[in-house]
Amino acid sequence: MDKDDNTNSKLDYLKLGFKAGLEIHQQIDSRKLFCNCSSVLRSDKCDLIVKRKLHRVAGETGEVDTAVEYEHGLDKTFVYQYYKDTNCLIELDEEPPKLINDGALDIALQVALLLNCEIYQNTQIMRKTVIDGSNISGFQRTVLIAHSGWMDTSFGRVPIATVALEEDSARPGESDGSEDDKIEGDKNVKIWKLDRLGIPLIEIMTAPEMKNPEQVKECALKIGEILRACRVKRGIGTIRQDVNINIKGHNRVEIKGFQDPAMMIKTCDIEIERQQKDIEEGKIKGEVRGILADGSTKFNRPMPGRARMYPETDLPLLKISRERINRLKKELPKLKQDIKNELEKEGLRGELLNLVIDGNVEEFTELMKIHKNPELIAKIITLFRKEFSAKTGKSYEEVKELMNEAVLGKIIEAVEEKKIEEGDVKGVLSKIVNGERLESALKVEKVDDSVLEMEIKKLVNASPGLREGAYMGLIIGKFGKDVDKRKAMGILQKIIS
């Protein structure tokens, strides 16, 4: 059963006729979409400056889009910062695009399949007119690859309208002293960096069927989980989330620039109140607004329509074979919740489970094939590495390299073959981190069981009446950290019982 639609006591979302949809853009971790340039962002001085003015172009309907007309009216001059190792003539619009990046397409198709979408097997790459300067050519290449998917939330199913693959825009820049003339502070000039232009970008659009702001937030988090299961870029700026929202009597408003889903509930409520005032004043026109730090929004530009799309004539029809789709279905990555369920079946819980999920799953899985002790292996690849880093002053990455999977595999193999005890592992690793060779570190000198029992009896007789922990301290003090603590404890308990 769906949750109650009204998650905020002050606003009756059902009565207000609240409707919302998400538009999420996520960078793919690959080379650029229509050339072979790297997708690295730059902070150094650029190699070349290009200045352009962009002009409005009619879409395939023969009309000029409202948003395009608005940008044209601003009469801006754009300055582009070009990097020879990160850009090419394609990004300057001086050379036709190459065929679409196959690796990026595969990742986008995986995302679409994880969202339960139908794949378009024949689809046309399009040009979307954009003359705010963010695309030096005056358009953005985009291709629709999937449709009619869905995602379940605790408030009900949310339809996924479309999944597209497109090239990312240039990013705002500032003068780095490369310009021939003074432009800093000129209101009619805007500077853009071309390093980001062309990075593959997945665009996911839900249907406008979410019932309240809490569902918007939940859906954004779930889509984020799916994206992170695939090979996408991480960090600030690599994902951009927009919310389309309206109430009864008001046209759709697109709010751009969400970095944190936690802000969505607050911003939706503020936008509802703003639209209520608009309706009272007879202003119901849709528009694009940008989010501010306090959750309120500001006007950006008029709402774009469909008149800014027209076919890309430099590239053939994109064909996605059934064989490719079937192959990708077999290679779909596991989602975090699925991985969590599997690790719980292996016996992991709590902090160790979360630490393994956070980037250590493959290593954990491989080591478990050698010796099935999930808690030991989880501690080795998470807690032990951090502990040795703190104790030795070595960076975590240095410790991880010393305790790499090959080294750990040999140590775990020695445990499985009973050459060393599980209790010896930490001591062996400590020796390795401190510079000892693996072969030497694995030579653990053990106290003979009969000698150990005799010496424990002597310790107990010399200091009668102590607690178990105190006796264990004396035992470790005598034999060192390499003593088998479990065996020693078993002998001790037998003697003092």
Compose a concise summary of this entry.
This protein is of the alpha+beta class and 497 residues long. The protein has helices at 13-16, 66-73, 102-114, 213-229, 264-280, 322-330, 336-346, 350-357, 361-368, 374-392, 396-402, 405-416, 425-433, 438-441, 449-462, 468-479, 485-496; strands spanning 19-27, 48-52, 77-82, 118-119, 122-123, 125-129, 139-153, 156-167, 171-172, 189-193, 200-206, 239-246, 253-258, 287-291, 297-302, 309-311, 318-319.
Number of domains: 3
Q: Point out poorly predicted stretches.
A: 1-8
- What is the tally of beta strands? 17
Specify the helix fraction band: 25-40%
Quaternary state of the chains: single chain
Structural class determined from secondary elements: alpha+beta
Globular, elongated, flat, extended or rod-shaped: what is the shape? Answer: elongated
Please report the distance between the alpha carbons of the first and last residues: 58 Å
Q: Overall mean pLDDT score?
A: 90
Main β sheet profile: 11 strands, mixed
Strand content: 15-25%
Radius of gyration: 30 Å
